[in-house]
Amino acid sequence: MGGTPRKPYPTHVWSPSGGWWSQPKQWKRNTIIIGLGTSVVVGFVFKKSAELEQRTLYPRVWIPSMMWSKQFKNKDDPDFQPPKSL
């Protein structure tokens, strides 16, 4: 089933991707570790970005960042009012 039989290949060729028919040891564990690490970094960047977000103009339409932005949760802010023309 499937494809041609494996042919002999030169063993002296080096490849950063592992060469021909590469199957790294513990690739599932390594993938999970990288996935978790990436999730932690993305989560930290998202949290920091939400804390630092400042808008000088009120958006004309609803945008998703209005759900987590502190600026839109604080309705008592006198300096930040929606435009009257909407």
How does this structure look, described?
The protein is built from 2 helices and no strands. The chain is an all-alpha fold and about 90 residues long. The protein is rod-shaped and about 75 Å long.
Question: Brief overview, please?
Answer:
This protein is mainly α.
In total, how many beta strands? 0
The number of helices is 2
Determine the fraction of residues in helical runs and give it as a percent range. 25-40%
Instruction: Output the radius of gyration.
Output: 26 Å
Features:
mainly alpha; 86 residues; rod-shaped
Please write out the topology.
Elements: H1 27-52, H2 70-73
